């Protein structure tokens, strides 16, 4: 494969992972943590980065181990690999980001059961070389992380009237100054912080993405239809 083809392939991997097949907004996988911990941007960012790191590491391990795995044991092997990766991430978070780890709670070990991670291991990592597998994990994790952050931003703005609330949980005590209070003396909007608000917010994000896709496709179709018309006019002239 030449360099141009490889570059196009990687561009397609990233386009599919973060946009066309976005885990949270298109395939709708991993919704339990997506809806449960996305009440602030920092919580969403913490879980999103943990999931992204899990995808990259597990895809790499599955791709390296694929010559050794018999077809009949591949799914249990994927689960063991993902569980080992999540355990390491969980211990690191418990040591270095303990307060954030306590807030995210059970949803860190539950990354093991995220269907998107096992799905990418089976659909892509088990059929491709290590570097494309890592790129797929990074792209898929990035898409999930962006969906989390978008939902977390919406819910935090409506629920608390702030942005980057409790940023010190991830970045240290110096990050307290990063919090933006956009609405002073804000009493809060409780629905945005409840599970029902998370479902409504996710529905709005999915609708916005579908509308944007339709708008872009309509623009592309209009440009493509305009080209033959211009060529015909030039031919008649």
Largest sheet: 2 strands, antiparallel
DSSP helix count? 10
Mean model confidence by pLDDT: 89
The percent of residues in helical segments reads over 70%
Radius of gyration (Å): 21 Å
Low-confidence stretches are 1-8
Instruction: Provide the domain count.
Output: 1
What amount of the residues lies in strands?
under 5%
Q: In order across it, which strands form the biggest sheet?
A: 1-2
Overall description:
The structure is a single chain. This protein is an all-alpha fold. It has one domain. 71% of the residues lie in helices and 2% in strands. It has 10 helices and 2 strands. The chain has a two-stranded antiparallel sheet. Helix 7 (130-160) packs across helix 10 (195-236). The longest helix has 42 residues, at 195-236. The protein starts with a helix and ends with a helix. The model is unreliable at 1-8 (pLDDT under 50).
């Amino acid at each position: 494969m030449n360099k141009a083809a490889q570059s196009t392939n990687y561009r397609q991997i990233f386009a599919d992972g973060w946009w066309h097949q976005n885990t949270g907004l298109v395939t709708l996988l991993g919704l339990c943590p997506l809806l449960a911990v996305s009440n602030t941007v920092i919580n969403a960012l913490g879980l999103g980065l943990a999931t992204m790191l899990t995808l990259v590491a597990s895809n790499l391990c599955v791709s390296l181990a694929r010559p050794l795995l018999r077809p009949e044991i591949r799914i249990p092997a994927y689960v063991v690999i993902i569980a080992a990766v999540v355990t390491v991430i969980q211990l690191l978070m418990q040591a270095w980001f303990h307060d954030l780890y306590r807030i995210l709670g059970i949803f860190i070990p539950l990354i093991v059961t995220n269907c998107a991670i096992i799905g990418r291991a089976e659909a892509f990592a088990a059929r491709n070389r290590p570097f494309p597998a890592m790129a797929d994990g990074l792209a898929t994790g990035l898409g999930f992380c962006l969906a989390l952050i978008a939902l977390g931003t919406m819910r935090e703005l409506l629920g608390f009237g702030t942005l980057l609330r409790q940023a010190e949980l991830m970045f240290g005590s110096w990050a307290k100054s990063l919090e933006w209070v956009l609405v002073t003396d804000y009493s809060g909007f409780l629905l945005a912080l409840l599970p029902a608000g998370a479902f409504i917010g996710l529905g709005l994000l999915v609708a916005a993405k579908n509308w944007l896709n339709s708008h872009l496709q309509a623009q592309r179709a209009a440009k493509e239809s305009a080209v033959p018309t211009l060529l015909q006019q030039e031919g008649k002239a």
